[in-house]
Amino acid sequence: MASFKLLPTLFSIPNTNPYRKPTIRTCFSHRRLNVILEPYPGGAKTFISRFAADEPRKGSDILVEALEREGVSHVFGYPGGASMEIHEALARSSIIRNVLPRHEQGGIFAADGYARASGRPGVCLTSSGPGATNIISGIADANFDSIPIVAITGQVPRRLMGTDAFQEVPLTDITRPITKFNYLVLDVEEIPFIVKEAFVIATSGRPGPVLIDLPRDIQKEMAIPNWNKPIMLQGNASRLQEKALLEEIVRLISQSKRPVVYAGGGCMNCSEELRRFVELTGIPVATTLMGLGVFPCTDELSLRMLGMHGTMPANYAVDRSDLLLAFGVRFDDRVTGKVEAFAENAKIVHIDIDPTEIGKNKKPHLSICTDVKLALEGIIRILEKNAAKQVIAAEKDIQMTKYNDNASSTWRKEIEEQKEKHPPSYRTFGEAIPPQYAIQLLDELTNGDAIICTGVGQHQMWAAQYYKHKHPRHWLSSSGLGAMGFGLPAAMGAALAKPGKVVVDIDGDGSFMMNIQELATIRVENLPVKMMIFNNQHLGMVYQYEYEYGDSNSMHSYLGDPSNQAEVFPDMLMFAKACNIAAARVTKKGELREAIEKMLKTPGPYLLDVMVPHEAQLMQLIPDGSSFKDAIRGAQ
Predict the structure, then answer these.
(1) Contact 27/52 with Cβ under 8 angstroms?
(2) CB of 103 within 8 A of CB of 518?
(3) CB-based contacts of 405: which residues, under 8 Å, 6+ apart?
(4) Could you tell me how many helices (H) and strands (E) the chain has, helices first?
(5) Which of 268, 257, 312 has the alpha carbon at shortest distance from 286?
(6) What are 363-382's pLDDT values in tens digits?
(7) Up-side HSE of residue 600: CA atoms within 13 Å toward CB?
(8) What radius of gyration, in Å, describes the C-alpha atoms of the chain?
(9) Buried/exposed 297-311: b ≥16 CB within 10 Å, e otherwise
């Protein structure tokens, strides 16, 4: 059993340049490290090493065994000169499989998808130099969306550091602002401790990416590992002591006439608690892009997504609310728009595990810095206790307020009127396929149970709007960073994390092309990833902005061949054929159902190229920096 020591104060370790002053580890974090008092739960309870306890082994073998002890089963690693020793050690492991991506960015996005779908840390491995810098976007994405990733990079030997050696980059310096923690390992004996600590940090408090940079000479160095060194971290135990604040929240709910829950990615691990809370209170729920699935879109109290590309009822309800319960959210600009006008008439309760998010963008009236799960459990206990009192009071004919009455019938009726007034709608184009219709069909044919991955662009928002998300960890999308090329490799990771689940990459032709090389990985691994590409021969979101706000000049958003616009270019079916993946193209609305059914029924990977009109645009768009009242509505 690993031991943890909580230090009495919180401080940041200085940002020492490791090339100028030797140090074992460096870190910088803009977020508090909440330390759990037990080892990372993914680790093996008992572990039998293939080495004798007193047997020296390479640093690379120590690293791999440390990963095994943390319960790692898959690593997404692309080899190179500075990481070859680690790959050789992985080949000696009977526990960990290395999945070979065809690009390092594909590897880290696959690790990201693995983590989002499973809730366990994703692990990726690259070499030094360009191999390492190729994962920067993936690290930034995980940092934005609070995804636990452990990224391991090879580094040049210690004696060459600071000499501008071949493929040397100071990766700890480069990634310091976008990692929760990072390490430059300068002592082979620190590997077991660092790996153990990295997994605790990646998963504790607000999750995030951790980087381990390992010089090649340390990978070769022989040592006897000490697996029992205790972990010491700056931070505090995740706990909840503010019972009086929870009671105050219950009081605010009882007084509210128009309450709304605003739920985000911080609710991913407490979906059941959120549902019970709503059952007890009858309060409608709007979710962020990151929060899709934490509360089922099929529930009558679901307002679905709010914000720039959210539903009109969700935005209306928040705008009209007198109490906004913000659970696990960060009030980002794509949700709030003009922040001073966001929920301007509401009392705001903000519960989040990250203290830096509370009051950063929107000042709350009441806030609690804790895990949302703990807070909801506490609130539910109070509500259930009060509900029991209501039963007793009813038996004695004593009048008491019921919590289901707090979200009054008048408020519910007002929201229902908005749903009836603004149902999901879209423009049709004769026999051409509206992308929104394609997503509705996919939702119907999968019963809303598929794991949906997306790239970034119009297709991402259509998938958020028209697929009825019912489960947490079934919506995987680059939300904060908005990284094109995320969908395909993320689906690859999700398929490995959740075998037996239907995994669909809903992608745009532009976004899909950015990591199209991962078709080869999907084929070799025989992953049953279904790819539904909305092919409009354009960068659709860019084209829409040009159409709405620019001079309608789309020269730089057209992705086809300008000299032959009648032909589909490039031909996605040829890419699929090159990787021996079954594929088809559908161009007519009447043929779409059969095409999607075939995609879902075909064993293994399948690519469906859905030709959609580039004139199809997003609806209910709230312009940048504007408020709900400035929403652009209607079928465009």
Answers:
(1) no
(2) yes
(3) 282
(4) 22, 24
(5) 312
(6) 999 999 999 999 999 999 99
(7) 18
(8) 26
(9) beeebbbbbbbbbbb
The reply to whether the predicted model has a pTM over 0.70 is: yes
CA distances from 140 to 135, 210, 211, 605 (A): 9, 11, 12, 29
Structure tokens, 300: 């009558």
Taking only the tens place, the pLDDT of each residue in 472-482 is 999 999 999 99
pLDDT confidence tier of residue 32, bands split at 50, 70 and 90: very low
Beta-bridge partner residues of 429: 432
Sheet holding 209-215, edge to edge: 97-99, 74-77, 122-126, 149-155, 209-215, 181-184
Q: How far is residue 96 CA from its own chain's centroid?
A: 24
Rounded Cα distance, 18 and 174, in Å: 12
Q: What is the 3-state secondary structure (H, E, C) of 378-433?
A: HHHHHHHHHHHHHHHHHHCCCCCCCHHHCCCHHHHHHHHHHHHHCCCCCCCECCEC
On the question of a cis peptide bond just before residue 121, with omega within 30 degrees of 0, the verdict is no
Length, in residues, of the chain: 636
Residue 271: its H or E element: helix 271-281
- Residues in a beta bridge with 452: 475, 504
CA distance 541 to 546: 9
